Amino acid sequence: MCIRDSITTVLRDPMETVCSVSQLRNPVRNVKVRIEERLIEFAKSKNENGGYLLGKNSNGAIHVEDAVSVGNVEEDNMQITFEKGAFKRVREIAKIKNLSVVGNFHTHPSGVLKPSLQDKYMQYLYTRYVQAIVTEYGISVWYRGKELYNYQL
Question: Is a pLDDT exceeding 50 seen at residue 80?
Answer without folding.
Answer: yes
